[in-house]
Amino acid sequence: MITAVTLGAAATPTASALVLRPWCAEDVAALVEASPDPGLECEDDALRWVRAQERGWAAGVRFGFAVLEAAGGATPARLVGNVVLKEVVSGTSSAEVGYWTAAEARGRGVAPRALEALTDWSLDAFRADGLERLELLHQVDNLASCRVAAKCGYTYDRTLASAPPAYPLDGHLHVRRAAS
Length: 180
Description:
Layout: E1 7-9, E2 18-22, H1 28-34, H2 43-59, E3 62-69, E4 78-86, E5 94-101, H3 110-125, E6 133-139, H4 143-151, E7 155-160, E8 171-177
Helix pairs in contact: 1-2
């Protein structure tokens, strides 16, 4: 079982450092404000979502991280996104990654820096369990996700057919393999 971990992404000349840590109940209000998911518009829904993230950690199958922009001095860290490693099964060679970035944090390198930290941790932490391939899926019309995938070394693999209602549009599958 993987215990809760905290990951980081260094500051850049134009952006603050990032801290990635497991979601907790104290994140609920910030989650309601930051999430692009229309299903997280109230604190009750957000708390249910956070509890599901906690259950995923406990079961060892889903590892969701709140992405916080580190602050200095008395300024608290600010929630700017989410990254997740999901569909983790011991003995299986692949798992999936996902992410979202709060609207006000887009265009500042949050998604690629957070995804890179998650990717490095995932391929290291689960290598002994057989993990050697991470998959990133997004809708074909999400050009920003294509750019994030490329920046993080996820190569385009193929286009997947839509599967309504869950996946109303075709999708791109990007793959990153563990270094040999």
